[in-house]
From TrEMBL:
Its main location: membrane. GO terms for cellular component: plasma membrane. The chain crosses the membrane at residues 691-713. Residues 28-61 form the Leucine-rich repeat-containing N-terminal plant-type domain. It holds the Pfam family LRRNT_2. It comes from Rosa chinensis. This is Putative non-specific serine/threonine protein kinase. Keywords: Cell membrane, Glycoprotein, Kinase, Leucine-rich repeat, Membrane, Receptor, Repeat, Serine/threonine-protein kinase, Signal, Transferase, Transmembrane, Transmembrane helix. Gene3D superfamilies: Ribonuclease Inhibitor. The keyword Signal applies. It is found in: Cell membrane.
Amino acid sequence: MANAFIFFLLLIFSSNIIFENIHACNQTERSSLLFLALTLSSPKLNWTSADCCNWEGITCNRDGWVTHLQLPSKGLKLKGGIFPSSSLANLTHLTHLNLSHNSLSGSLDQTEFFLSLNDLEILDLSYNLLFGVLPSSLPSSHIRMVDLSNNRLHGAVSSSFFQQAWNLTSFNVSNNTFSGPIPSSICRPSSSSLRHLDFSFNKFNGSISSGLGKCSKLQVFRAGYNYLSGSLPEDIFNATTLEEISLLRNSLYGAVSDRISNLTNLTTLDLSYNQLSGVLPLHLGKLSKLKYILLDFNHLEGSFPLSLMNCTNLVELRMGANNFGGNISMLNFSKLSQLSKLDLRQNNFFGILPRSLYSCKFLKAIRVAYNNLEVQIEPEILSLKSLSFLSLGMNKRLTNIKEAMRILMGCKRLAVLSLQSSFLGEEMPNSVEMADFNGFQNLLLLDLNSCNLSGIIPSWLSKLKKLLILELNNNRITGSIPSWLGTLPSLYFLNMQFNQLSGEFPKELCTLPMLVSGQAEAQVGRIYAELPIYYSPSAHAEPLQYNYIFYTPFIHLGHNCLSGNIPIEIGQMQHLQQLDLSANNFSGNIPDQISNLKYIEVLDLSMNDLSGKIPASFTGLNFLSRFNVSYNNLGGPIPSSTQLQSFNASAFEGNQLCGAPLQNKCQTTEGADALDTSTQDADTKEHQIPWFYVSVALGFITGFWGVCGPLVLMRRWRYAYYHFLDNVQDKFQCSM
């Protein structure tokens, strides 16, 4: 029994020795890995044991050759910024190389590195700081996946790069600065395994060459955010396995071919932000697997293809900013049970918004603004329990704001409500009419601009504790600005210009937490919007697209009847970027505290009754892009700074200002000093006691009474004085 036990122990010991011998790493490769570790500046790898096959990120085969080097998201950085090609070139049995999500720099154009890795199957160097051009070809005929996305690589992607890529299934070079055409020979009969191509977010240009149709297994083709032009190549419609075509933000033109109906596996079609024209194919609805159709911002026209109502898997339908037309009442949305987002903004649709839309129970966003629709807020909208984005403005016949608000209060998840240019000429619902108000608790954006509404700012708005953006501009709202506006904890965008507001600028408004405290701003963070929001930073600027709710921190109260002084507390709003108080009746000096608004980009105080000087501290407002103090009662020199002098003279006209950029120059410093000195002397002389004249008067009085006083008071002296005068007169006459 004892002998059997000893034999068993020897068997285990010998098997361990054999196992260790099988997996013991090759010493040459161990040295290469150690050299790789030495090239890293941070962090240090715990590669200290004798067997490199046991090191972190290293996997060996049974013969001890390193096959996997996988160190993603380790914070790796290189000393000297030179990619360790020589170290990696010695790992000749490597099949998987993953160094993604680090901070590796250097160039990949190292022939020795690529040519030596003959067994490489997976190459993932994404999310690093690599630069330079690509090597002439891929390193291995076995390679299946290449991900070089999110680096700083540039130059052209040569067709020869794919010369040996017989087994390539995925190629991703997105988020670099590659240029030139998309390689035409990437799809060949020999590369039929290719499934995923991503060229997006680069500088590729020219037309998309034919050849994609040869990729018989291609599923995803992305080349958005480039400079591609021309029409879609016809042979792309031969790639019937395609599930996604994403070519947004290019300059593609022409019509969408009828042959697109061949792509019966297509789930995503994103051709937005191009220059496509013509009508959509009538049989687009044959693409029954379609989930996402994004065709907004093109020049497409014609009626809405009724066949799309058969795409029962549709989740998102965006066709805004085109020239589509027709009667929207003809559309039956009842089959689109999965529809989550509908965007038909800025077209020429007419008719009544179909009630069948309310059968789409998963709808989160509806935007049909800027059409010719007949829209009313119906109680059925309350069946859309997930609705968070509603934009119906710039249509016709949207009336009864009081009833509309009462209904919409029941949409508990509503975050964005845009009803601009609606309810024309009606009165803003007041607090009495909204006495039972308990809705809009999740409302972030309320837009009632250009509705010609009358009345005062209603106090029920004070209950909207999550409100970020309030647009009431271009109405006929009267009364004063309520002080409770300053208590709204999330408000940072307030637009009430072009109304009839009166009274003073309330000091409480200067305490808006989002404009005072960066901490409050950080707590709110970025809030995702169900549909993109388009915001123009200025009147003539191209709208910017945001996928989250974002507006510039902003207070616009221009073109009202506000009066009084601009409160000095305005300097507390340090995160404010735009302030417009133009065309009011503000008086007094411009507060020096405005210079505390270090991030201010737009400051318009024009057409008021402001006096005094432009504060010299304004020279520290380094982010100003628009500035206007014209038509006030300001005087003195314009403070000298690179910023203020860069504005047009019209920004200062209508005052008594001097200095650049105005033509009238201020007096020189010496002249000004001399003038100040003479003025000071004059003031001194004006207030100095005239001692000379006082002494003369006192001397006269003293002499007069010193002589005449005794003559008046003493008779004896008077007789003697008169006798003396008679003698003098007699002597004078004798001498004559």
